[in-house]
Automatic annotation (TrEMBL):
Protein name per its UniProtKB record: FMN dependent NADH:quinone oxidoreductase
Cofactor-binding details, from the entry: Binds 1 FMN per subunit.
Entry similarity comment: Belongs to the azoreductase type 1 family.
Enzyme class, UniProt record, top EC level: oxidoreductase
Reactions that this protein is recorded to catalyse: N,N-dimethyl-1,4-phenylenediamine + anthranilate + 2 NAD(+) = 2-(4-dimethylaminophenyl)diazenylbenzoate + 2 NADH + 2 H(+); 2 a quinone + NADH + H(+) = 2 a 1,4-benzosemiquinone + NAD(+)
Name of encoding gene: azoR
Keyword field: Flavoprotein, FMN, NAD, Oxidoreductase
Flavodoxin-like fold domain span: 5-198
Listed GO MF terms: electron transfer activity; FMN binding; oxidoreductase activity, acting on NAD(P)H as acceptor; oxidoreductase activity, acting on NAD(P)H, quinone or similar compound as acceptor
Cofactor requirements of the protein: FMN
The UniProt record lists the keyword Oxidoreductase: yes
Lineage top rank: taxon: Bacteria
Subunit-structure text: Homodimer.
Keyword Signal in record: no
Amino acid sequence: MSKKSLLVVQSSILADNGQSNVLAQALIQRWQETHVDSEVKVRDLGAEPVAHFDAATLAALMSAEEERTPEQAAVLAQSSQLIAELQRADHLVIAAPMYNFAVPSQLKAWIDRVVANGITFKYTDQGPVGLLQNKPVTLLATRGGMYKDAGQDFQIPWLKQVLAFIGLTQVEVVYAEGLNMAQQREASLAAAQAQIAALDL
């Protein structure tokens, strides 16, 4: 039997001081307690950013493999590696702080690399179809203010939509809101930690 695999995508620019990364580490510990003999891959986009999607990347994708320059091959090799990590994982965790009402640009760059026509989705006469084998996804959403119930959350609905587009529909969200509000911070973090401890991993 192959080892279970956890892929954790972190996107905070604050390293260990980022609360989304703190929650990610708590989930990793919970996972390792449940799956003693398992693999954990942490893709830290804050420490090692992924190149943003650009015209050069598009040109590489549209070029025949035998005609690609070494630079184009390198660009697509990174995309292939990220997609392989995602395909291999049994459980995906995305730690997403809110920056200016959206996900960090580092996370958007990762999304643009793994949403790939013909690999993680395809177009059909009935519309797009996700090609990834469905698997559980946990989103760790940290915010300085209170957005979830205020009609101002553009982050999690977008993440759920793009994940469903590539075939991932089993999504659970752990929220930690009000982290810049003195009366909310500790209670919100404690509630998020308790939710992680109770996850069915």
